Amino acid sequence: MSRTVTRSPQNSPEAGHNSESVLSHGLKQRHLSMIALGGVIGAGLFVGSGVGIAAAGPAIVLLFMGTGALVMLIMRMLGEMSAARPSTGSFSVHAEEEIGSWAGTTSGWMYWLMLCAGVAAEATAAGTIMHTWVSFIPAYGWVAIFMVFFCASNLTAVKNFGEFEFWFSAVKVTTIVAFLVLGVLGILGVFGDAPGTSHLTGHGGFFPTGAAGLAAGLLTTISGFAGLETVTIAAAESDNPSRNVARAVRTAVWRIAVFYIGSMAVVVTLVPWNDPKVAKDGPYVTVLDTLGIPAAGTIMQIVVLVALLSAMNANIYGSSRMAYSLVSRGQGPRFLAKVTKGVPAAAVLASCLFGFAAVIAGIVWPTTVFAWLLNIAGCAVLVVWSIVCLTQLKMRRRLEREAPELLSVRMWGFPYLTWLTFAAILGIFAVMAASADGRQQLIGTAFVVAALAGAGHLKQRRDRQAATGS
């Protein structure tokens, strides 16, 4: 049965019950543009991609082309829905309206869990870096400092999140542009002999590790893109949500291609994929050392720290807004919906506390509780993306019937590319199921998804009974 609900940003489910519950609109277009730009640049690109290169060899470029194309399509779907119906809960709100409460609950809380686990992982890594520089403060002390700082900044005003993310993203973008320029000069032989194709074909060929290596590298590349959906959440707190999210999503596409695919192409052309330093020190440091750039390790360590802090900032923001949206729709404890001066203070505190608890779990139970949490978080983005595909299929058809003027951003090749994207996600699940570690991730995730979907289904049934008076 099709739904005919049409909501504006002001009367969307999470808008609250009174004017005090409305979030502020402190984000500007420049903030959203940088959030979209920096949201696809994390520590995973600067360091974690080295693991993917070691697993797949030069073929990592093809993997990033494939996963990059997948992410571009997901972003286009999110852009279409968010431009038409801007909402703090983004895809979770749309899933609830189009599919049902179970879909909104599942996608929303899975995303929240993923972001909070990310906060813990990023805070731990940032604390480790700072401890190497200022050793008299233990790593967990730095973790506490970062957690308190970003929690406090997110509690004051949304513009603080926007400003921090603007400058963090500026550092990351400048670094990548400089790296690409230096890399191209190195390929041309400006810093020595031009490598040609020797590193692409001379160490076992372009596919040195075969299908197994591609499968291992695939999971690494997917995780590098998690969290970029935050821009569609942030758009609801900007001065013109529909226009701003449309602009941000349109420009995010080519950035993914240039930054990720371009970087990987430079790396595997300039250095051997099986150089141990690629995985140990990171591909960026290895390339810069090869080119003879002074203090390359220190420079990249600073950039990685910035990337980690940027991800912490964005994940605290995104998780708090998603939690606020969920509880405002009756899908969680009501006290988390408390808004203070336009900021969902209770949701910010809850997200930070969960993230800090995950940090402690990483210290006390690193191979059990924390590993289980990270495994589920790593799979969560695929669950969210699959629900996004199904939601967009229904929402697009409804908008075409009821309000075609709201389709300022349109998914390419609808519905064929949407179905192709959904099939690709199912294919990734199948690849994961073929390995022991992947199966463990899928089993743990399945239990959480079943619990969330069950809770959402019960709420959906109660709402239906209340509506019919039975």
Task: Walk me through what this model shows.
It is a single chain. The protein has 470 residues and is mainly α. Helices cover 73% and strands 0% of the residues. The chain is built from 18 helices and no strands. It has helices at 29-38, 43-56, 60-84, 91-98, 101-133, 139-156, 158-187, 198-201, 210-223, 230-234, 241-270, 276-280, 283-290, 296-328, 345-364, 369-402, 416-433, 436-468. α1 crosses α7 (158-187), α3 (60-84) runs antiparallel to α11 and α4 packs across α16 (369-402). The longest helix has 34 residues, at 369-402. Residues 1-21 have low confidence and may be disordered.
Q: How many individual helices?
A: 18
Count every beta strand, where a strand is a DSSP E run of 2 or more residues: 0
Q: Average the pLDDT over all residues and give the rounded result.
A: 85
Distance between the termini: 20 Å
Query: What share of the residues does DSSP label as strand, in percent?
Result: under 5%
Instruction: Return the string of H and E elements.
Output: HHHHHHHHHHHHHHHHHH
Low-confidence stretches: 1-21
Radius of gyration: 22 Å
The main pleated sheet reads as: none
In terms of structural class, how would the helical and strand content be classed? mainly alpha
Helical proportion, percent range: over 70%
CA-based shape: globular
